[in-house]
Amino acid sequence: MATPILMSQSKNIYHYVFWFVSVFFLLFALFLASEFKNVLTFQTISLAIAINLCFAAAVYINLRFLLPVFFKKKSFFLFFTLLFITVGLSALLIQFLLIYPLNSFVLKDDGFKTFVFSDWFDFFFFSFIYVGVTSIFSLTREWFILQRISGQLKDIEKEKLEAELKVLKTQIKPHFLFNSLNNIYALALDKSDNTADVVLQLSDLMRYILYDCNEKLVDINKELDFSRNYISLHKIRLDENTPVNFIVNGHFDGHKIAPLLFEPFIENAFKHGIYGKDSDSFINITFNFDENDQMELIIKNSYDPNWNNSKKGSGGIGIQNVIRRLELIYPQKYKIDIDKGEKIFKTTLTIELS
Question: Can you give the pTM of this predicted structure?
């Protein structure tokens, strides 16, 4: 990356080249004039430099003062008024140089020339051209610089979001493992014959989390299979009479989705919707896919605010985590609604799929 000093030096070189070329073309114009058959003289070069100095005065007053102070602050009336005055004075100064010292020094004409409006207008026109062209160059250069800076800021923001997503995803993995191990621990205490099967099932789930979830988006079939297996893992501890329904409506083939978005909501349903054996606990999980590439997840579970669940105090990171991920991955493309009734807790998540 270029240092500010090198960038400043490079910018100055462009200015030097511009004015060198301007002097060259003015000498060429003098060569075409009948008075100047031999232009490579000290007098004609002095005249070309003097005229360019007048142009430069108008140019740099505009670049350093008029553009930043008035034009960029949208004070257009003052800008164009002062610009007209600046260019007019530049043209008058050129005429003054030709009428007085340079007229005698270069043309060897001691006669006094009066002010001629047509000559002044010609110099005004050329001075205005110089100011206009350099203004366009300056504004175009600044626009490209702003575009480059804007692109760099977007890249930085993208890297920041990707880093945040990685952190959020890494939080999910130990959180999921912690809750699954709690289930296995409870089965082990009960000396359940299903303990070994649950450990094997957990191994398959962890394999999906560790290897398949490294992509930003995964096939939605895999995510639904993960949800089914995760539900099966929880159902092992439930009473056989506790209804847990998993329903998928519509067609979803070919769609992808961010991984591990559903697990925190499903976990929350099991955590707060199942409160003991021989109760009226239930969980209904429904996925709806429509023809407009929209997915709707509806989770309804029983809810008893008086039930003392010792696990309620643990965790809490899952739902906050997934909502933040939704904000980053699906901005303006998702909607979440949580309705806590007296006996039913309902969560509705809607996502526009890619």
Answer: 0.55
